């Protein structure tokens, strides 16, 4: 049998061909049965006739399974042989089986003597070849695999032993079970001196007793704790440590171990200066977990030096530490801690300015521009309110039920799809330039009678070799595209299958750009094209804010959070996997499918607008700026440096999110006639929502989208100014899209021209 992969937590292990040692004094049907079973299972098999040869063979080969004949004591003592083998180090992870006699007329005997001798289990004699084979297979996937994983723990202990961080593992009762050499060295103990000691038996400083009680309240409920405190070494010296304690779930689903990772603070010489902040910070970590009054049971945070005698400074430091300390130190926490430290020695004007900076950092909307309260463009305010919030909660019982009993189209209910080879000439002609940005999606919409997604999907997916990657047939892909398109609402003026086809086209275009191709793997390309295809499936033509205000079933299902995007992603997989005829994933290997699924879901959820500025800012700071810095430093030709920026897993995620976001709202970067058509369609959908909100008595989310008063040019300029310009500047800097930026500039001029003439319509009068 070839080597097989075994998953052990986050480790991926390679298990070689298993080795079996048969210890039988003579050949008989039983030994022959096991020999045949080994051959069938693909295991390497050795046979020993005597205890001496068995022990010698085992010490040479280190077998995974040993099967000892326990039926005939006149040949050798099977239990004595097992004990001999168990005295050797290699047997620690070996499974040893005793073959015992079958006694139909005798009472069942106890297995305890066999266990005491070191046997793992017994096998009641049965010379059936298939019985022997089944026994070996059960061992392979049961005890042998378990022992294989335990053997892999040696590598983990090797890492722990060599780690420079001090690591301590205790039981749930805080009895020390393991400490690594770094811990013993740091704390001044000898090898093995701490094992089986209660933590309370270890010399501690007067604060640690309080810490243990409060830390326990956090870690006992399964949360990590992180903070700094002083600990005493064996010789009584005090050292400052940065400590993280992680609870580990074990038997019975309960916390069975605590792993403590400690590191000496680099700045122990400044311990006096930072003592107060550290103690306050650790305490607030605990109080965050306990969710109790900040002052209850608090530690003494009085300054130990004259530098902290200023009451105002002391209050500022301790209050900032309380507000910003977190159970797990996030990057923003590190920034805040740096600012807190800077305030220590800053003059009052600087300290006050840093206080204002901290006030800004306290907001959860760190990436969202804050709109002013006076003289703000109502179009911008309404767009932001409509697209970036989840609506105002409505207290009345008046609910809007969205498609409560709606049935979704499935493969069996649709007509037989056409083949890529016999597409009608008019449709073929409409798709001739689909690789170009100026491709006209509306011409294809007309040629296909509002079914552009199937046809464009077939062509683009064929160009990218999607069927080959997924190992699915073209007919399965056609059925899938047809099912997805059937579940877009053709009654929507904007969010229909033409919009999906348009986003698919933009996604394919972006994937063809050189910088994008350098960055993404084939699985990323497949995920991007599928995500674009399904990203708005079953869209009701209403915004998330509308659904939340209306108390729709979808809003309730998804807790008013990313309602539509969550629905699009979930429904896409439901439609795909419920019928084998359209299940494009059915032939994928499980782990690859899970990876692909995660990327698709992440990209669909990225189209939700509430995190728009977060995605754009992260892209700028993690992609644009590092690449620009490399270019400025003359490293533009340094392929390795650029590759490091582009290929890190975190940055690839940001690039995929940015790609689908730009594809989703690329209408202002299309040629002018397409831009105008899309503007008319989205405006009509918003008008219809405003009409329905007024009919239903719901809050009107975007009042400016009143079909009688709305200025479409103003709404387009507001959308472009607020959402589009910065995002496409960043994307153009990365992907090099001069034609898109030229269209964007022309379209801005067009809308400004209409607005300057106070025209509220899509086109000037003839």
Automatic annotation (TrEMBL):
Residue span, PAS domain: 152-222
Biased composition (Polar residues): 301-312
Amino-acid positions noted as binding AMP in the UniProt annotation, renumbered to this chain: 495-499, 536, 664, 716
Keywords: cAMP, Hydrolase, Metal-binding, Phosphoprotein
Annotated coiled-coil segments of the chain: none
Domain PDEase: 419-758
Bound cofactor: record note: Binds 2 divalent metal cations per subunit. Site 1 may preferentially bind zinc ions, while site 2 has a preference for magnesium and/or manganese ions.
Location of the region described as Disordered in the Swiss-Prot/TrEMBL record: 297-322
Cofactor: a divalent metal cation
Enzyme class per UniProt: hydrolase
Function text: Hydrolyzes the second messenger cAMP, which is a key regulator of many important physiological processes. May be involved in maintaining basal levels of the cyclic nucleotide and/or in the cAMP regulation of germ cell development. Binding to RAF1 reduces RAF1 'Ser-259' inhibitory-phosphorylation and stimulates RAF1-dependent EGF-activated ERK-signaling. Protects against cell death induced by hydrogen peroxide and staurosporine.
NCBIfam families noted in UniProt: sensory_box
Family: Belongs to the cyclic nucleotide phosphodiesterase family. PDE8 subfamily.
Protein known as: Phosphodiesterase
Species annotation: Eolophus roseicapilla
Lineage: Eukaryota, Metazoa, Chordata, Craniata, Vertebrata
């Amino acid at each position: 049998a070839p080597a097989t992969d075994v998953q052990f937590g986050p480790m991926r292990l390679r298990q070689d061909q298993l080795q079996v040692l048969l210890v039988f004094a003579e050949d008989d049907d039983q030994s022959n049965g096991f020999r045949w079973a080994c051959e069938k299972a693909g295991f390497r098999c050795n046979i020993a006739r005597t205890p001496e040869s068995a022990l010698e063979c085992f010490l040479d080969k280190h077998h995974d399974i040993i099967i000892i004949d326990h039926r005939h004591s006149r040949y050798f003592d099977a239990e004595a042989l097992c004990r001999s083998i168990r005295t050797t180090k290699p047997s620690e992870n070996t499974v040893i089986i005793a073959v015992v006699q079958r006694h139909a007329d005798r009472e069942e005997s106890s297995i305890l003597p066999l266990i005491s001798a070191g046997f793992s289990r017994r096998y009641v004699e049965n010379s059936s070849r298939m019985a022997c084979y089944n026994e070996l297979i059960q061992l392979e996937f049961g005890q042998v695999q378990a022992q294989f994983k335990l053997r892999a723990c040696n590598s983990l202990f090797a890492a722990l032993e060599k780690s420079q961080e001090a690591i301590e593992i205790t039981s749930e009762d805080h009895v020390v079970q393991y400490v690594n050499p770094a811990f013993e060295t740091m704390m001044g103990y000898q090898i093995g001196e701490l094992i089986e000691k209660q933590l309370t038996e270890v010399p501690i400083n007067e604060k640690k007793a309080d810490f243990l009680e409060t830390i326990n309240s956090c870690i006992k409920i399964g949360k990590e704790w992180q903070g700094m405190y002083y600990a005493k070494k064996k010789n009584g010296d005090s050292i400052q440590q940065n400590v993280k304690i992680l609870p580990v779930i074990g038997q019975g689903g309960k916390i069975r171990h605590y792993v403590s990772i400690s590191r000496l603070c680099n700045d122990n010489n400044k311990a006096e200066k930072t003592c107060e902040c550290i103690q306050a910070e650790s305490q607030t970590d605990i109080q965050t977990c306990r969710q109790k009054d900040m002052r209850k049971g608090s530690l003494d945070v009085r300054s130990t030096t004259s530098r902290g005698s200023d009451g105002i400074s002391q209050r500022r430091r301790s209050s900032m530490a309380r507000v910003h300390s977190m159970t797990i130190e996030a990057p923003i926490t590190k920034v805040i801690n740096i600012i807190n430290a800077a305030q220590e020695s800053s003059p009052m004007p600087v300290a006050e300015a840093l206080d204002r900076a901290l006030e800004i950092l306290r907001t959860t909307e760190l990436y969202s521009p804050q709109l002013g309260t006076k003289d703000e463009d109502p179009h911008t305010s309404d767009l932001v309110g409509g697209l970036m919030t989840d609506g105002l909660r409505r207290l009345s019982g008046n609910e809007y039920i969205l498609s409560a009993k709606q049935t979704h189209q499935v493969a069996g209910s649709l007509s037989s799809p056409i083949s890529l080879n016999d597409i009608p000439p008019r449709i073929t002609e409409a798709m001739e330039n689909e690789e170009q940005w100026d491709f006209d999606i509306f011409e294809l919409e007309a040629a296909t009678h509002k079914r552009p997604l199937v046809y464009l999907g077939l062509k683009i997916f064929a160009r990218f070799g999607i069927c080959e990657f997924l190992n699915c047939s073209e007919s399965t892909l056609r059925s899938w595209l047809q099912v997805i398109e059937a579940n877009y609402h053709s009654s929507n003026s904007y969010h229909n299958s033409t919009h999906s086809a348009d986003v698919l086209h933009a996604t394919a275009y972006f994937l063809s750009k050189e910088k994008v191709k350098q960055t993404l793997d084939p699985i990323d390309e497949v995920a991007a094209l599928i995500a674009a295809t399904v990203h708005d499936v079953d869209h009701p033509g209403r915004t998330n804010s509308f659904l939340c205000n209306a108390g729709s079933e979808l809003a309730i299902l998804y807790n008013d959070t990313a309602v539509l995007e969550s629905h699009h992603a979930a429904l896409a997989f439901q439609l795909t996997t419920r019928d084998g005829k359209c299940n494009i994933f059915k032939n994928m290997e499980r782990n690859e499918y899970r990876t692909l699924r995660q990327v698709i879901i992440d990209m669909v959820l990225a189209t939700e607008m509430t995190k728009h500025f977060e995605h754009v800012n992260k892209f700028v700071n993690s992609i644009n700026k590092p690449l620009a810095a490399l270019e400025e430093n003359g490293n533009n030709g340094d392929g390795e440096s650029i590759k490091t920026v582009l290929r890190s897993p975190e940055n690839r995620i940001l690039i995929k999110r940015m790609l689908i976001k730009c594809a989703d709202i690329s209408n202002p970067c299309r040629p002018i006639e397409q831009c105008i058509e899309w503007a008319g369609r989205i405006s009509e959908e918003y008008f219809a929502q405003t009409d329905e909100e007024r009919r239903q008595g719901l809050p009107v989310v975007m009042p400016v989208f009143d079909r009688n008063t709305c200025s479409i040019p103003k709404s387009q300029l507001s959308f472009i100014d607020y959402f589009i310009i910065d995002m496409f500047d960043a994307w153009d800097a990365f992907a090099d899209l001069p034609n898109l930026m030229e269209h964007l500039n022309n379209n801005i001029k067009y809308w400004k021209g209409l607005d300057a003439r106070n025209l509220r319509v899509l086109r000037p009068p003839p």
